[in-house]
Amino acid sequence: MIPCVVCKDPMPELRSTKYGYKSCVECSTTGAYTAVTTINGVGDHTWNDIAIMTPEQSKQYSKESKKTAKFDSYNQDA
Question: 63: helix, coil or strand?
Fold first, then answer.
């Protein structure tokens, strides 16, 4: 165990040596990442994929996808 540079509480040394983090999980400023499923291609040549996004990217994607939702079964305007 090594001390966190922010709070000085003990944290696993592997967190620093292998992953390069200087602070413990409680002091981290990184938010949870999000996985978003996507449908790509046209016609018979479609495939599903996932995109891993930061919290900021996820918020932006959410705003944009609401504007362009074409297959929303609850959309009464379509």
Answer: helix
**Which stretch of DSSP H or E encloses residue 39?**
strand 34-42
Residue type, 8: K
Q: Are 20 and 9 in contact (CB under 8 A)?
A: no
pTM: 0.49
Average confidence (pLDDT) per 10 residues, the chain, 78 residues: 95 94 91 88 92 90 72 50
Contact residues for 47 (Cβ-Cβ < 8 A; gap 6+): 39, 40, 41
Lookup: tokens for 38: 């996507």
Answer for the pair 6, 26: CB distance below 8 angstroms, yes or no: no
